[in-house]
Design goal:
This protein is mostly helical and 85 residues long. It contains 4 helices and no strands. This is Secreted protein.
Length: 85
């Protein structure tokens, strides 16, 4: 019976002192879950407020180029060739 007593011995220390670790871990997991739900709701609301299409940032430049081409009567490629790379 001596070998079984050695194998059955508790080598993990006092298990009663760590009795709060389980409930604290559960509380942290639940709080992280609640925070995640609020973050998802906030992101969803922000995404719904976004416009379906964003304005083209180059639209003004393209319109100005088109007007200058109409006035000069030349092709629009001359603008690209004259600007340094």
């Amino acid at each position: 019976m001596g070998a079984l007593d050695v194998l059955a011995e508790n080598n993990f220390g006092d298990t009663r002192s760590g009795g709060l670790a389980g409930p604290m871990g559960l509380l942290i997991i639940v709080l992280l879950g609640i925070v995640t739900v609020f973050l998802i709701r906030n992101m969803t609301a922000r995404i719904r407020r976004l416009p379906a299409e964003f304005p083209d940032p180059d639209a003004e430049r393209k319109a100005a180029e088109a007007q200058s081409v109409e006035r000069s009567g030349s092709d629009p490629d001359h603008l690209d060739k004259s600007t340094p790379a």
